[in-house]
Structure formats: structure tokens, C-alpha cells
Recover the amino acids of this structure.
């Protein structure tokens, strides 16, 4: 009889899970037609060595895409597997992102159900609602629609799996091994996994509610006696990760100090960032954009507002801490979600990003919060009318969320839409202008490129990548004076010393400029210098091959071309092959 009674419940769970998955897939369906955008182009599309050869092995542990602090071996291995399986096809890689998001949505539901069983029980419908809120939360459009943000998706998967193993595995040894492994994998995916031990401890503390009335032992003693193996496994996993990171990079973090290193300034920034992320989690419908420039978010003139925000954050966290000490789910939810936000809250005096915040950084916090939603209970003094209206308000929130996702997905579909959108939201964003100029130059849209280049060159401190694109635009029109001026200004930039990718592009551009001026010897030297700096970038190899053809060194030219063609992405390889063959044929004909 008991088994028969449980069967319908299982069917309800399965049907509800399939319904949620179907809704998420239906809403995100257009993602399959999206292209590579932003870092996808430079780090995935243009790095064709990911898709063939053995060169990828040297970038698994360090220097991926020229980033000094990038130690994310699991993420790099995932990208290698995808570009090889799908031959650098963006559509298939977008489906992988959606599959990860669907898997995370199911993991949120499974963790919610497990926590509910441990603490006070919860209805299947509450679990389904939590899954739906997570799966259709508009703040997650960015990590789902942007392939390079699969690191966020995989990180969230590892953390959810770790929490689920901790809640579901009864045998202490295997629980410890499983949780420690999940933490290690999360750390090897992204550094913000550092928040996992805090989340783990908070969820363990919450689970003690169920045994509080049956044990006379002190809670801390019971917690340590129950979980010491798991905490030891997490500590070992963390130390192992730090050792591997140091061996791979030669440092733990290569710091680039920000201008304001004062503790009060960092605390104010942290409070402002946390407030923004809390707002995103509750109401993400407004203010979505790919970038949120630091200067436009740091409202230094609004000292009173900053102070009020800091006080508000401190008050909420204090109330949450008091509730957590009494093992109240609401307090633990706030603390656990906020803990996952701390790596992006500007507490560390290091400049990680030109944006003050990104919606994608709220992903793990949202996963933990949604998994805990079903164990929350309405305050007893809440008016009946408010309780009755809650489902209606939740349904309206979901309707607006779906409309928001469908309106935002096309903006992430290609470079033009993405950076035009960014400029509409932040007209002075240098990053948006830089990427849009690069798009215009690559598409040979000279009218728009010139208009934007003139605006950027008038800036007393133009961005380094902008100068490089302006130089290439000028050289495409054989305007060597304008190209030389842009490159001379770029050569004085301090960024060249800290950005290998930029330095490589600068030297290649110098080679092109020298070639335009008839200095073939100088051009050849520049191309060879660029190859020494980064032998995996194909443009320098192809430019050298074409120059050697012009010099009549056909065997050397063919060798350089073979290297270049192996490094080009599949969708441009044949066009560059045809360009080389044409140059070779012209040289042969001229020789006759």
C-alpha cells in the first residue's frame, strides 16, 4: 500500500520536472541560431589550435587567451572538447550551454526536495515553482547565451552537486569523498568556488534543526562530530587546488591594484555591489546590459546614499546572522546567497574587470536561493490577503520574466546587436565602442568605422584596442600617416607590457605598416617577432607567407602558409587558402 501511495507522487515529480524543462527549452529555443560574441571570437573561434593538434595541452593550466590569472583547467578542457566535437560551430556550443542550464535547473529541484525532506518537509509544487523561477530567471540570459560564460554554468553545476551529495549521501566516508571532489572540480572551473565551504557549513547548520529536540549535545559539537570527515576532505581539496595553481602559474594571484585601496572605499563598493546583486535576484527586469562600467556605478558624490546603502546591507546581514544562529531558513538563505556573491563584491583591492558588476555573477547565488525557497514559510502575522495574492504575483513575475528573456536573447545573438545595445545603455562605455569599432573594421563598414574612429581618436586617452583598430582601418585605405600616428600613441601605452595579445597585435600592425611603406625586411622581422610572442596566432604566419611569396621565397612561404592554415578557424580557412594560392600563382606567372 505504501509503495502504491508513493507511485503517483513519483509520477507527479517526473511530469513536473519534464514540464519545467520543456518550458525552459521552449523559451530559450532561439539560442541555437546565435553566433560567437565578445570573448568567444578571440578565445574560441580564432584559437583554431583548440580544435586540432596538441598545442592546447600547453594552455590547459596557464595563459589561456593571454590571461595571467586564468587557472581553470576543467573549463579549458570543456572548451577543447566542444570545439573539436562541433568543429567550432557556435550553434552546437549554444545547445551545450542550454543543456547545462537545464541540468542546473533539475539540480536546483533535486536539492530543494532533499533539503525539504531533511528540515521540515515541502510540497512537490513548491519544488516545481523553485525550479521554474531559476530556469526562467532573466539574470541568467547572459551566461546561457554567451558561450564563454559556460564557466559560470559548470561552476554552478559542481556546487549544486556538492551540496546535493552532502544532503543525500548517508555514509560519512563517501559523503566526504564526493563533496571534496565536487569542491575541487568547482575550484578548477572558476576561482569563485571559494564560497562553497561557507555555503556547505550554512546548509549543515540548517539541517541540525531536525535533530535539535532529540539531542542534548551542543550544536557545534554535533555538527563537527557528524561532518568532520567532509570538512577535512574540503580542506584537502582546497589545499590541493592552491598547490596546483601555484605550480602552474608561479603565483596565486597576479595583482593589478585599483586606485582606491582604502578599506572604507572597498567596503562601500562591496555594499553597493551586494545591493545591486540582491536587486537583480528579486527584480532582474531592469538594467540588463553586457557591461556596467565602474565609473558610472561608483557614485562618489552621493556620499549619503553610499552610507545609507552600507548601513542597509549591514543591517540585513546582521538580522540574517541572528536568524541563522537560531537556524532560521530565511537567515541562512540570505547568508548563503550573499557568500557566493562576495568574490564579485570588490572586497579585494584588485581590478578584475572594467565593469562594476555582471548579471552572470549572481548565477550560483540564485541557484542556492531557489533551492532553499521551498523550505521557507510565510510569517504567521502575514495578512491572509497577501498570502492569497502571492501565487498571482509569482505568476505575473514569471510572465514578465519570459517576455524579458525573449526580448534579450536577440541582443546576444551577434556582435552588432550586443554592442549597439551596450552603447544604448552606457553611451560612454569604452569597451562597447572598442568592440563595435572592431566589428565595423572586420566587416569593412568604413562609413560607421570612420565615424566611431574619429570620436575615439579625439579622446585624450583613447583605449589601446581602439588605437589598434584605427591603425588597421587606416592601413586598409593606405593612409600610412594616420596608421603611424595611432601606432605611435599605442606604443606609449603601459598596457602593452601587461597584455600579450595586445603586444602581439601591435607588432603585427607594425609589420603591415612597414610593408605598405616598402620596408619588406622590417616587415618580415616584425612578423617573425610576433610569431615568437605567440606562435598559435595565425595572422602573423599568413602575413609572413604572403610577404615571402612577394620576395620569391616560395618554399619558405609554403611552410609558413601551412602553419597559418592549420591555425585558422574552419569558416575562414578556405578563404585564406585561396588568397595564398592566388598570390603564389601571380608570383609564378610574374617569374615566367
Amino acid at each position: 500500500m505504501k509503495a502504491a501511495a508513493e507511485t503517483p507522487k513519483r509520477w507527479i515529480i517526473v511530469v513536473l520536472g519534464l514540464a519545467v524543462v520543456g518550458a525552459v527549452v521552449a523559451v530559450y529555443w532561439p539560442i541555437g541560431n546565435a553566433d560567437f560574441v565578445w570573448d568567444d571570437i578571440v578565445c574560441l573561434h580564432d584559437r583554431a589550435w583548440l580544435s586540432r593538434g596538441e598545442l592546447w595541452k600547453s594552455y590547459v593550466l596557464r595563459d589561456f587567451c593571454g590571461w595571467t590569472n586564468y587557472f581553470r583547467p576543467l573549463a579549458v578542457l570543456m572548451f577543447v572538447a566542444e570545439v573539436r566535437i562541433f568543429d567550432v560551430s557556435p550553434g552546437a556550443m549554444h545547445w551545450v550551454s542550454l543543456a547545462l542550464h537545464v541540468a542546473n535547473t533539475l539540480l536546483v529541484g533535486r536539492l530543494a526536495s532533499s533539503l525539504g525532506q531533511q528540515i521540515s518537509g515541502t510540497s512537490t509544487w513548491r519544488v516545481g515553482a523553485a525550479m521554474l523561477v531559476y530556469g526562467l530567471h532573466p539574470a541568467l540570459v547572459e551566461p546561457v547565451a554567451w558561450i564563454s560564460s559556460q564557466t559560470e554554468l559548470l561552476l554552478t553545476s559542481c556546487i549544486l552537486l556538492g551540496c546535493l551529495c552532502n544532503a543525500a549521501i548517508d555514509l560519512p566516508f563517501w559523503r566526504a569523498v564526493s563533496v571534496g571532489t565536487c569542491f575541487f572540480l568547482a575550484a578548477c572551473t572558476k576561482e569563485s568556488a571559494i564560497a562553497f565551504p561557507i555555503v556547505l557549513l550554512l546548509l549543515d547548520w540548517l539541517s541540525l534543526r531536525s535533530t535539535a529536540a532529540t539531542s542534548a549535545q551542543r550544536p557545534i559539537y554535533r555538527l563537527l562530530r557528524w561532518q568532520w570527515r567532509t570538512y577535512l576532505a574540503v580542506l584537502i581539496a582546497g589545499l590541493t587546488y592552491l598547490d596546483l595553481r601555484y605550480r602552474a602559474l608561479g603565483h596565486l594571484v597576479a595583482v593589478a591594484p585599483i586606485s582606491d585601496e582604502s578599506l572604507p572605499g572597498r567596503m562601500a563598493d562591496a555594499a553597493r555591489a551586494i545591493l545591486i546583486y540582491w536587486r537583480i535576484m528579486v527584480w532582474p527586469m531592469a538594467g540588463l546590459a553586457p557591461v556596467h562600467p565602474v565609473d558610472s556605478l561608483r557614485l562618489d558624490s552621493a556620499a549619503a546614499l553610499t552610507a545609507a546603502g552600507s548601513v542597509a546591507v549591514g543591517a540585513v546581514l546582521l538580522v540574517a546572522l541572528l536568524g541563522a544562529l537560531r537556524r532560521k531558513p530565511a537567515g541562512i538563505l540570505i547568508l548563503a546567497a550573499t557568500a557566493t556573491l562576495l568574490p564579485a563584491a570588490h572586497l579585494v583591492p584588485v581590478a578584475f574587470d572594467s565593469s562594476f558588476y555582471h548579471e552572470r555573477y549572481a548565477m550560483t547565488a540564485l541557484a542556492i536561493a531557489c533551492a532553499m525557497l521551498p523550505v521557507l514559510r510565510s510569517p504567521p502575522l502575514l495578512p491572509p490577503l497577501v498570502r492569497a495574492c502571492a501565487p498571482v504575483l509569482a505568476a505575473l513575475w514569471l510572465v514578465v520574466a519570459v517576455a524579458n528573456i525573449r526580448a534579450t536573447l536577440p541582443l546576444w545573438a551577434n556582435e552588432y546587436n550586443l554592442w549597439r545595445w551596450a552603447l544604448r545603455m552606457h553611451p560612454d562605455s569604452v569597451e562597447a565602442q572598442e568592440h563595435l569599432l572592431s566589428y565595423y573594421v572586420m566587416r569593412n563598414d568604413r562609413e560607421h568605422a570612420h565615424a566611431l574612429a574619429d570620436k575615439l581618436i579625439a579622446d585624450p586617452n583613447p583605449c589601446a584596442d581602439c588605437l589598434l583598430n584605427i591603425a588597421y582601418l587606416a592601413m586598409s585605405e593606405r593612409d600610412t600617416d594616420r596608421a603611424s600616428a595611432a601606432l605611435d600613441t599605442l606604443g606609449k601605452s603601459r598596457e602593452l607590457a601587461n597584455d600579450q595579445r595586445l603586444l602581439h597585435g601591435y607588432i603585427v600592425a607594425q609589420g603591415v605598416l612597414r610593408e605598405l611603406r616598402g620596408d619588406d625586411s622590417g616587415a618580415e622581422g616584425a612578423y617573425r617577432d610576433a610569431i615568437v610572442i605567440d606562435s598559435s596566432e595565425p595572422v602573423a604566419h599568413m602575413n609572413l607567407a604572403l610577404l615571402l611569396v612577394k620576395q620569391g621565397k616560395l618554399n619558405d612561404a609554403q611552410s609558413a602558409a601551412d602553419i597559418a592554415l592549420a591555425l585558422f578557424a574552419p569558416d575562414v580557412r578556405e578563404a585564406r587558402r585561396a588568397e595564398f594560392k592566388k598570390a603564389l600563382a601571380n608570383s609564378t606567372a610574374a617569374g615566367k
About this structure: Confidence is low (pLDDT under 50) at residues 1-8. The chain has two domains: 2-210+217-344+356-412, 428-591. The chain has 27 helices and no strands. The radius of gyration is 27 Å.
